[in-house]
Amino acid sequence: MKRIGIINGPNLSRLGKREPTIYGDKTLTDLEAMLNVLAKELNVEIETFQSNHEGEIIDCIHEWADQGLRGVILNAGGLTHTSVSLRDAVAGCDIPCIEVHISNTASREDFRHVSLLSAVCKGTIAGLGLDSYTLALRYLAKH
Fold first, then answer.
1. Global pTM?
2. Phi, psi at 25, each rounded to 5°
3. Residue ranges of domains in the chain, CATH in brackets
4. Residue in 23, 133, 139, 143 annotated catalytic
5. Which of 103, 119, 120, 138 has its CB 3.0 to 4.6 Å from that of 91, i.e. a possible disulfide?
6. Residues with Cβ < 8 Å from 128, sequence gap 6 or more?
């Protein structure tokens, strides 16, 4: 069975509490439950990981690459705009990676307009709320 990883970075553990007008009222637990239901429909297995620490996220990507996961959905949060190390981990993992964002980063503060990850990801889905994740999961399950 195809295994797909889902990584949520800094502050995404606060979904449902943090700026609900931007990120909605669903929690990370709600998101993971929704993705588990979809994964069963798509006949794929998912693994989820959340950390507020850059190095732990990089370690997770390396570990999943070594385990042969078939794809990664990555919401790196604020690290999207700042982390060369995370960009290098994605570039070096040889796993198709889809960058996702709940909000439309292009319509927000100027510093959110530049992603260090987009160039090394298979694609980017942003601004569609939690549907950004479901679209990414459907894509990786199919390809």
1. 0.94
2. -105, 0
3. 3-142 (3.40.50.9100)
4. 23
5. 120
6. 102, 135
